């Protein structure tokens, strides 16, 4: 189900992010907007091979996996200091939400990370996104405290960590 995105997937990925942003905004979650996720970041993720598609005939979701953690993560008391992979911008197309795809995607992320040799996974979720926070907790991720990712916005994000066994 998870495969590396290619340059030709860009328009479909950007459309998926736009649909997700609209749906999140309709549900009162305003951490994504017309400026984020942005085309330049997604192109960079594709070029580096860090953007993965959740695909079964069509693109149902997307996630970025890389070693680039936000600077505000440095202040957290992580269980492990290095050899981590970070999850960024997990999104499931609104057409395929409520079907367990985010759960399946995160299980695949753990399998991939383990196979590649990472010892733990770090990520954050918008503090008001209770659904995402519950998903990560259900999957055994430990809450590591809140951070502010954007200095110009008063939005809090919960950091999570999962040690891969």
Helix and strand content put the structural class at alpha+beta
CATH topology: Aminopeptidase
Q: How much helicity do the residues have? A: 25-40%
The CATH homology group name: Gcn5-related N-acetyltransferase (GNAT)
Distance between the termini: 22 Å
Provide the number of structural domains: 1
> How large is the share of residues in beta strands?
25-35%
**What series of H and E elements makes up the topology?**
EHHEEEHEHEE
CATH architecture: 3-Layer(aba) Sandwich
**How is the largest sheet built, in terms of strand order?**
1-2-3-4-5-7-6
User: Would you identify the regions where 5 or more consecutive residues have pLDDT less than 50?
Assistant: none
In DSSP terms, counting alpha (H) and pi (I) runs of 4 or more, how many helices?
A: 4
Mean pLDDT: 94
Rg, nearest Å = 15 Å
Largest sheet: number of strands, sense, barrel closure: 7 strands, mixed
Shape estimate: globular
Q: How many β-strand stretches?
A: 7
CATH class: Alpha Beta
């Amino acid at each position: 189900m998870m495969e590396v995105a290619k340059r030709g997937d860009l328009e479909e990925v950007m459309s998926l992010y736009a649909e997700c942003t609209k749906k999140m905004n309709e549900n009162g979650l305003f951490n994504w907007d017309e400026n984020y996720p942005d085309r330049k970041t997604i192109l960079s993720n594709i070029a580096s091979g860090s953007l993965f598609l959740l695909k079964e005939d069509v693109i149902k979701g997307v996630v970025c996996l890389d070693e680039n953690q936000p600077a505000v993560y440095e202040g957290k008391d992580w269980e492990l200091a290095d050899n981590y992979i970070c999850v960024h911008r997990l999104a499931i197309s609104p057409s395929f939400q409520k079907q367990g795809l985010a759960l399946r995607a995160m299980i695949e992320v753990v399998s991939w990370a383990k196979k590649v040799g990472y010892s733990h996974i770090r990520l954050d979720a918008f503090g008001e996104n209770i659904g995402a926070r519950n998903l990560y907790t259900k999957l055994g991720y430990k809450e590591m405290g809140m951070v502010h990712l954007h200095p110009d916005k008063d939005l809090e994000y919960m950091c999570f960590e999962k040690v891969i066994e």
